[in-house]
Design goal:
The mean pLDDT is about 90. This protein is about 5% helix and about 40% strand. By secondary structure, the chain is mainly beta.
Length: about 140
């Protein structure tokens, strides 16, 4: 069941619950555009970009968290270099002007593209402990 984040207080509760994402990593990213072709081969455009981010962390309590951003405004992804660590130590999670922002390090500022970050009008979270480990949710073989 998804929990919606509506306020700064909700953000603080999530950061407390998940240890500010300390010693975590982004395990999976799923993006759906909501455009599709129906059975009659007609194309539909719902213009609802949704991104799911699945995190795993090195703690027994709440090891897996999933964030869902709806009405995504922007998504910036860059792979880590070979000599870079993919470990997240602290994040930025904030709301400005009705938009939620998440970035993979503390102190991130809007417009800094040297990171993984996402913004959207709606934000939800849920715990997913059953997805700890090298679980494959999409069969890409």
């Amino acid at each position: 069941m998804w929990t919606e984040i509506d306020s700064q207080s909700d953000i603080e509760k999530l950061l407390d619950l998940y240890g500010s994402f300390h010693d975590s990593c982004v395990r999976d990213i799923y993006l759906t555009t909501r455009e599709f072709i129906d059975e009659k081969l007609s194309m539909h455009f719902e213009n609802k970009l949704v991104v799911l981010l699945l995190f795993q962390r090195q703690y027994k309590l709440n090891p897996v968290l999933e964030l869902k951003f709806e009405e995504v405004q922007q998504f910036n992804f860059r792979p880590y270099e070979e000599n870079e660590s993919a470990i997240i130590y602290d994040v930025t999670l904030k709301m400005e002007n009705g938009i939620f922002y998440w970035a993979d390090f503390s102190g991130w500022q809007i417009g800094d593209n040297d990171s993984i970050w996402i913004s959207g009008k709606k934000l939800f979270w849920r715990l997913r402990p059953e997805l700890i480990g090298n679980v494959r949710r999409i069969n890409d073989e």
